[in-house]
Amino acid sequence: MKLVATDLADVLIIETPVFGDDRGAFWESHHARKFDELGLHVQFVQDAVSRSRRNTVRGLHYQEPNAQGKLVGVVAGAIFDVAVDIRSDSPTFGKWATVELSDSAGRFLWIPPGFAHGFLALSDIATVTYKLTDFWSPTSEHGIRWNDPEIGIPWPVETPVMAPRDAALPLLRDAKILPRCEAAAR
Description:
Blueprint: E1 2-5, E2 12-15, E3 19-21, E4 24-26, H1 32-37, E5 46-53, E6 57-63, E7 70-76, E8 78-85, E9 96-102, E10 107-111, E11 115-121, E12 125-132, E13 141-143, H2 164-167
Antiparallel strand pairs: 1-2, 2-10, 3-4, 5-12, 6-11, 6-13, 7-10, 7-12, 8-9, 8-11
């Protein structure tokens, strides 16, 4: 396993070796000792899976309190994955990082607590896995509008498929509850 930097210091791509042959392929999505060796001292408490059809945008979501770190991977299809620094006192507040994840690359995105997360399904069907560092809490759920012009994420879609709730999320400047930098500690 190796870490690859993104445009945000705390958001990291994790690349794992992919072992393939004529039967298919194998790779590890998480290995606690290897994560510790890489300096990612995290404990996951919940796994989640979502399935989306092409051009679906989910997000940008976060929890506060009970901020979650997320290890995001794809088991079927491909996504345009996004993390936005929403820590109110961060020098990179409002900045974003994107990466394409697919079912054939052995790549994962580590998004620490304190960041909003969203993605666009690039394939006909995209099945996304999340390993989470805190439990989902409906009373802690928040979000930011996917196409906030002040953030300026270059989404490769103009008219996405979205839940009405996601389409109505506030702009970052109007968000009521935001985390602080200490939420992102590894």
